[in-house]
Amino acid sequence: MTVVKKSIDIKAPVDTVFTYFARPEHVSDQMSEKGVGMTVIPMDIKAGMGVGTTFRVIGDFSGKRLEWDCETTEFVRGERISAKMIKGKFKRWEITTEFKELSDNLTNVSMTVDYEMPLGPLGNILDKVKFSKSAENGLETALFKVRGLLEGNGSIPVYITLDAYQKLLAEKKKMNNVPVSTVLTAILEKYEQEPEIKN
Fold first, then answer.
1. 56-72, pLDDT tens digit by residue?
2. Long-range CB contacts (< 8 A, 24+ apart) of 187-192?
3. Are 56 and 41 spatial neighbours (Cβ–Cβ below 8 Å)?
4. Distance (Å, rounded) from C-alpha 41 to C-alpha 20?
5. Largest CA distance in the chain
6. Are 40 and 28 contacting, i.e. CB atoms less than 8 angstroms apart?
7. I need a surface site. Which of 15, 40, 63, 114 has the fewest CB within 10 A?
8. Nearest alpha-carbon partner for 166 in 147, 153, 183
9. What is the Cα–Cα distance from 31 to 28, expressed in whole angstroms?
10. pTM of the predicted model, to two decimals?
11. Residue 35 · residue 61 · CB < 8 Å
12. Ramachandran angles phi, psi of 145, nearest 5°
């Protein structure tokens, strides 16, 4: 059994931070540092990514590829999100992300991964040598990157339909191929200027 825990303070309201972490693929997108890569694919989404949501995790830890399916087991808005492995090679794998509002614009985030490696005693040796350190570094790097994104020092991945993306690219072309973020900003500004239609 190994427990890896990292925490960080983020200069953003707790609701903003929680909303970002509620989509596990957002955080996994930030885990791409020195031999650690992770992809999360939502499989069955329940009310706002809440309890019962299932997702597949594909992890690359210093050249060792592991894949497992998880289910969200706890979802308390603004406070905690937990998930556990329901299928995969780990003997056990659980993750909990906790949120603590420190002030209106400051949130503490703690991520804890509690797992037991496959392969019995050999797995425990491998864990102590490589895997645990890779997981710890990956978690810490992800938290630093998320903090940068939410504090306005980076870009946040946006997941949209293919149809919406094609329309966005058409607008980009009309605007002389400016960056996509510029196109989105222009669309949102135009939308905000339009009068509200009342029935």
1. 888 776 677 778 999 99
2. none
3. yes
4. 16
5. 68
6. yes
7. 63
8. 183
9. 5
10. 0.71
11. yes
12. -65, -40
